[in-house]
Known about the structure:
mainly alpha, two-stranded antiparallel ribbon, globular
Amino acid sequence: MDLVIGIVACTLFSVFSYLTDILDRKGTIVSFFLGLLVFFCSGLYWLLLLIFFVLICYIATIAKKEEKVKRHWSVKDSIRGENNVVANGIVPIAIAALSFINSPVMGLCYITAIAAATSDTFASELGILSDDTYLITTLKRTKVGTDGGISLLGELSALLGAFIMALLGWLLIFRLDPRYAFRSLFYPTVFGFFGCQIDSLLGAIFERRRKLSKGEVNFLSIALATLTSAPFYLL
């Protein structure tokens, strides 16, 4: 029965992702198998958090679509491929695979990793609507959409994205258990937001110079944010 539930959930989500242009064909195939891996390693609720991550980021992506188009944004910009799926999903999936070691701690790390990915997506997809963008390394005004560019709207959006996933993580993985309220809500929000700042720094220093790809920057920022948060969950 568990096998059927996992396959049905991943299939429905994959079909929806492809039909709504969240993912391209290869991205859809990769996400299906990665979703199954999360399901078999950690269960349905961990998979649901991953699904909510994609859906919420999609909402942020298509928000104020007309305004974004005026700023030279196109629908193609919102379609993710297999590289994006792996870059954003490899850390959460690795954590899910290791969840047998210490489920509560790994659950908190899992929430943090997804919060970091969400924070960065919110900053990028909503920050593009800001007219005032500054390079994170110099704080000098720069063009909207520049790698490493930040804005007040983008930063507030990043914080919101991290908090939303922290709240959903507490709901889904810890079932609103009050013993995990602070650790589930505060740390993933803080370190998720921190991961977004790492992403901006790496973007400004390395991605702009073509030393790192966007996928590599995403992976490193999520990994660093999660590793930095881990000691706080062991206390």
